[in-house]
Design brief:
The structure is a single chain. By secondary structure, the chain is mainly alpha-helical.
Amino acid sequence: MGVALTILGVVVIAVGLYDMFHILLHPSGRGPLGSRVLAGVWSVSKASGHRLGSAVGPVAMIAVILLWVLLQGLGWALIYYPHVPGGFTYSPGVDPADYPDFFEAVYISLTTLATLGFGDVVPTDPGIRLAAPVQALTGFALLTAALTWFTQIYPPMSRRRTLALKLKVMADTGYVEETGQLNAAAATRTLNTLAAEIDKVRIDFTQHSEGFYFREQDPDIALARHLPYALRLRDASSAIPAPAVQISAQRLGEALEQLAQKIDTGLLHTGKDTDQIFAAYADDHRQPGKS
């Protein structure tokens, strides 16, 4: 039984570490468990009319971190369980008979994972003495990973908001209506810059897919609301006879299509064309598209 529990514990630990690796370090930015938790929290928020507001993204990330803690705590508890209480020495005043063995194993696991080191329980079994420092290192890595995850999401969010605000300003100033009056060099420069910014957002959605679940309260910086205007700009620029402008318009169109496919393939799963994907994106975020 002890060997079976140890193997099961190692599997649970490995599953948690695998999920952490894929979300935090893998280029796909998606873990098999964490991504489902993110989507689940988003679905609950959407069903409630997004009453969580802009907090839904951070709440979803916290839920994933709690999942990782649970997996590590449970996995190591399964390893310790066969050795409780015989493989440990207890401080005076602590009677292991007062506590169920499994809950005692969970307690030892969580205090070790948190690197608290109360000193009330000390491993004496040679294997557990080697395992406990490894778990402490895992706990330190988990804490560092959680803090890093929160800090690394905000640069992509800033790029997304900047792009949304740029599209809003263009819409407010009637840029599409004046496109035909611009000289080819100015129009080309604007289109190429916009396409490059859209490419960066697409990469952000690839490497930081959790950013999709951050909903903006301010409609001015909500990309889901302003992306349809980029489609209008693409169409208006394509009608300009200057070859350089048409090439840049095609470049913008490709960037928009690739962004739409990234959002759809990884997150929305509509299987529709670019216009409809952006409309679904706006609806998912309760941000009616501004065109």
